[in-house]
Amino acid sequence: MAAQAEQPNCAVGTVTETVTVSQVVDGDTLRLRDGRLVRLIGINTPEIGREGRPSQPLAKAARKALQTLLGKTATVNLRFDREKRDRYGRLLAHVYLLDGTSVEAALLTAGLAAHIVVPPNVMQLECYQTAENSARKTGKGVWQHVYRPVPVKEISPNTRGFRIIRGRVLQVGESRRSVWLNFQPRPDQGPREGVAVRIARTDLEWFGDGQLHSLRGKNIIVRGWLSPYKKQLVMQLRHPASMEIVP
After folding, report:
1. Phi, psi of 14 (to 5 degrees)
2. What angle do CA 191, 197, 200 make, to 5 degrees?
3. pLDDT at position 2
4. Chain segment 171-203, per-residue pLDDT in tens
5. pTM listed for this prediction
6. pLDDT tens, 49-76?
7. Which residues are part of the catalytic machinery?
8. Which of 143, 163, 189 is the last residue of a domain?
9. C or N: which end of the chain has fewer Cβ atoms within 10 Å?
10. DSSP symbols for 67-121
């Protein structure tokens, strides 16, 4: 990974635990010698195919890059953030080589991962953004075609998983538990169909006052995971760093 020397210095700070890796499951997940799984904080890489499904483009390249980065000894340092485990029971950690190299920043700089923010684990947010930007500017890796922002009107109802989407916010609505960003549906869709972005009220602390309501009529790019909800596809937005306003 030649770009590693150019990556930003996402300083390790206090090491929480030093561990040995037994398997690189995919580009953003490790299995430790003691059996625990570690999900790397702050990045998402293309998915390896499971149960007969094909791998996404560059998924195997991301896994191979991570294997190469760790080397044969595969001993790494972990630094936990505010939330130690995800809903699947995996450890959540910033991962570093013994020389202090940030594994997440190396993959981002190489264009083999996208930055994703899942609060409250925001310790290295700005550094990871810088690493991704260096790859995006040159169209490296996933930024050449894999993570191209897809207009909401082109998204199939069967779409699932991590996506970067683009659209004009038609209206901003509120429910008891959420704030909703609704896009203009296609002519063949009803007002509650198509694609929407949901911000849970429990995450509103990360957004400025009036920030979401000011998006009405603006074009935005949002990244996250699409899943079905009634007749819509919904993407949950957890943090403003996963959204940008565009012309």
Report:
1. -85, 120
2. 120
3. 39
4. 999 999 999 999 977 777 766 778 999 999 999
5. 0.90
6. 887 788 999 999 999 999 999 998 799 9
7. 39, 47, 90
8. 143
9. C
10. HHHHTTT-EEEEE--S--B-TTS-EEEEEE-TTS-BHHHHHHHTTS-EE---TT-
Half-sphere exposure of 64 (CA within 13 A, CB side): 5
> How many domains does the chain divide into?
2
Give dist(CA 132, CA 123) in Å, integer.
Answer: 16
SS3 135: helix
DSSP three-state, residue 13: coil
For 129-146, the pLDDT digits (tens) are: 999 999 999 999 999 989
Q: Which of 130, 123, 134 is nearest to 95 (CA)?
A: 123
Q: Which two tokens stand for residue 70?
A: 């760790």
Task: Write out the residue range of the structural domain in which residue 45 sits.
Answer: 2-143
Q: Which amino acid is at 96?
A: Y
d(CA 106, CA 96): 10
Enter the tokens of residue 90: 């995996």
**225 contacts 236 by C-beta, under 8 angstroms:** yes
> What does the alpha-carbon distance between residue 210 and residue 174 come to, in Å, rounded to a whole number?
13
- Regarding whether 130 and 39 lie in a shared domain, the answer is yes
